[in-house]
Specification:
- The chain is mostly beta strands.
- It is built from four helices and 39 strands.
Length: 692
């Protein structure tokens, strides 16, 4: 049975073109194609050629797999020989034709005797209709018309309840960022998104029809999601694919309300036209980042049923003064060295390949014959190049290696330090076989879209815990283990350490990061941590300040990385509390290893701290820059920076104002974008342009 897959739009040479002539480029030109978002893209039909005595393939469609759209902007004449710009008052012809798909058995022309589907693509015939359109100036009709919008414009969207982004690239308005930062609870419910950069996509497709109205968009889900398990625990907060939406429309001034319901559920992208108001709405549910069929990461030994890590949208770093690009980071490289800090991609070696022992985190092994392939939980390296490999999900960051290569040949091994920014889940006091340790129970599912700001504005600085990043506790301050709190008096940005003098209470292990982080999906300000290696005194590693250096490797001990003093940045998923809970937990369990339960060593800080980290960067100062300090001893930021990290997140229940029981709810308005009619002066001006 053939099932609907998509449709194609053609510009036609004239009104006499038939459906059988759509593949004749002299009579029809393809200008748009849309199809369902699935694994069907290129469709090839085979037709037997008598002269060749063989089946000849023909590409029927090359699908884009982006979902169904229903509005398009056409600004060029595909048959024009000179300028392609459309000509006013000239008639143009178009046709839309649907197509269906059926591939019950894939046909292989080299094994034709096995049979199969030669015609997976079936084009519609009975629904073929030719449409005409005449471009013209819009000022004269309806007694004189003024348009206050263009095709493709959007509206600002305000979140009232719920969270998620449906795969759209989010951008908060500056007013919303300010509201979050000024909130005593470090949360603001009615966050507002810039046009076409909200959690649903509202687009003006017909500026002539736009009316003044206020809209309330609410999602509805009466099903229960009982198949999603995260770390073995059922999560029912996510909306099911059967969820749908309703749109309440209130005109301005009020003239009774109208309610429009979704034509389809949110399982696939669908553009629905709200025709009386000239707008369209696109909504889709997406998978979690790194979505796998079940719990993730999976301790599997093969690729069967595995869905590669996905969901990355965008990562950018913006400098207020583009001429002062002072911030960088350790760029990940797929080498057998400490700069390989993002466990992403795959490595295939031969039998007993010693190099496989270099990796001992975030992986599983696939064996084929005499070869073994180390497959990381981002096998397609989707997250390997975020901002040129200087930012990554914490769940992919190196927490340790089984052995470290030396430069000698054949391979020899040294002490198994990772120098990476992550921490083992089962803390090692002695270097024992790798099967005692586990990968982090912090998966790609943990990610959300965030903004990180770095600024000189101290009113926006983040009070946070500083973590020890020295690998060898025998040389760190107070013999702190890697990943534990810096056992040093806290730094106060007013210019002193909080030792208990100056009428201050003593405080340990905290400092001030010169900036802040925002969860652009929930409207929360987030906790941060940063690190330093207290052994690297010459790299600012023992002053409790975020002031990375430019030095990446030691000029004396080449194999010993400096990494700018290891002032790594950690973005947490917890709401900002000045780092108090993290500090409390880390001081309570400082340098305490584990309890013994069923012969399994478990770090105290797993669930309390490390599982809360979403993003990490091994920050460094760019070559050519050197820190200057203010009168209180704080490093001066050369120019403000914003780091944007965006990933897919599904729509889910999250209480903001509670008016939709936590299900996503948004409001928007077309006030100021409406088309104005009966504009006498506009009509007279349009008439003055007429030439007789």
């Amino acid at each position: 049975t053939y099932k609907f897959e998509g449709y194609k739009i053609y510009q036609l040479k004239n009104a006499q073109v038939s459906v059988q002539e759509l593949f004749d480029v002299n009579k029809a030109r393809l200008i748009a194609q849309v199809d369902l978002r699935n694994n069907v893209d290129k469709l090839v039909n085979f037709t037997f050629d008598q002269s060749l005595g063989a089946d000849v393939p023909q590409l029927m469609v090359d699908g884009n797999n982006l979902g169904i759209s229903r509005s398009f902007s056409i600004i060029e004449d595909q048959f024009a020989t000179g300028s392609k710009t459309l000509v006013n008052h000239k008639t143009y012809y178009f046709a839309a034709v649907a197509y269906a798909f059926n591939d019950y058995k894939t046909y292989n022309p080299l094994r034709a005797f096995e049979g199969g589907q030669k015609q997976p693509y079936l084009q519609g015939r009975k629904n073929f209709k030719i449409y005409s359109a005449i471009p013209h100036k819009w000022e004269a009709p309806r007694g004189g018309t003024t348009l206050n919008s263009d095709y493709g414009d959007g509206v600002k969207i305000t979140r009232k309840d719920g969270t998620g982004n449906g795969g759209w690239n989010l951008e908060l308005t500056q007013e919303s960022v300010d509201n979050i930062m000024n909130s005593s609870s470090y949360f603001y419910g009615d966050i507002e998104y810039e046009e076409r950069m909200g959690p649903i996509d509202v687009k003006i497709y017909d500026p002539m029809k736009v009316k003044t109205a206020d809209f309330i968009f609410s999602m509805i889900d009466t099903s229960v999601l009982d198949t999603l398990f995260i770390r073995g625990v059922k999560d029912t907060t996510y909306l099911t694919p059967q969820a749908y939406w309703k749109l309440e429309i209130n005109t301005v001034p009020p003239n009774g309300g109208t309610v429009v319901f979704a034509d389809k559920n949110i399982s696939d992208l669908n553009e629905q036209l709200i025709q009386d108001y000239g707008i369209s709405i696109q909504v889709r549910q997406v998978n979690l980042p790194g979505k796998a069929p079940d719990d993730y990461p999976m301790p599997v030994q093969n690729l069967a049923g595995y869905i590669p890590a996905n969901g990355f949208i965008e990562g950018t770093m913006e400098f207020k003064d583009p001429e002062k690009r002072w911030l960088t980071g350790v760029e990940d490289e797929f080498t057998f060295t400490p700069v390989n800090w993002i466990r992403s991609g795959q490595y295939s070696g031969g039998e007993n390949d010693e190099l496989l022992g270099f990796f001992d985190d975030h992986k599983y092994t696939v064996s084929t014959g005499d070869r073994s392939t180390t497959v990381f939980y981002d096998p397609n390296s989707v997250f390997a190049d975020v901002i040129e490999g200087t930012w990554a999900p914490y769940s992919l960051a190196t927490n340790w290696v089984n052995r470290e290569l030396t430069t000698s040949s054949p391979p020899k091994w040294r002490t198994p330090y990772s120098y990476g920014p992550a921490f083992p889940w089962k803390y090692r006091r002695t270097f024992t076989p790798s099967n005692i340790f586990q990968i982090t129970e912090n998966s790609l599912h943990n990610l959300q879209s965030v903004d990180i700001y770095i600024t000189n504005d101290k009113s926006k600085w983040t009070h946070c815990v500083v973590v020890e990043l020295g690998e060898d506790s025998s040389v760190t301050e107070n013999r702190a283990w890697k990943g534990h709190i810096r056992m040093h008096h806290s730094w106060n940005y007013n210019g002193f350490y909080e030792t208990g003098v100056n009428q201050q209470l003593p405080d340990t292990g905290r400092s001030w990061f010169p900036g802040y982080a925002i969860n652009v999906e929930t409207g929360e300000r987030l906790n941060l941590m940063f690190g330093e290696d207290s052994w690297l005194i010459g790299e600012n590693g023992r002053d409790m300040k975020w002031n990375p250096t430019t030095n990446e490797l030691s000029p004396i001990f080449v194999s010993e990385p400096l990494f700018g003093g290891k002032h790594y940045i950690y973005v947490m998923n917890t709401r900002y509390d000045e780092g108090r809970q993290i500090q409390k937990d880390m001081l309570k369990y400082f340098n305490r290893d584990s309890t013994i339960t069923s012969s399994v060593r478990q770090s105290y800080l797993n669930d309390r701290v490390y599982s809360k980290i979403m993003w990490v960067s091994m920050a460094e100062l760019e070559e050519g820059y050197k820190w200057q300090y203010d009168a209180q001893g704080n490093p001066i930021i050369p120019t403000d920076v914003r780091i944007r990290l965006r990933v897919n997140t599904p729509y889910r229940r999250f209480i903001a104002d509670g008016t939709n029981n936590g299900l996503p709810k948004y409001t928007f308005s077309t006030v100021g974008q409406e088309a104005l009619t009966q504009q006498t002066e506009v009509a007279e001006t349009a008439c003055d342009m007429i030439r007789v």
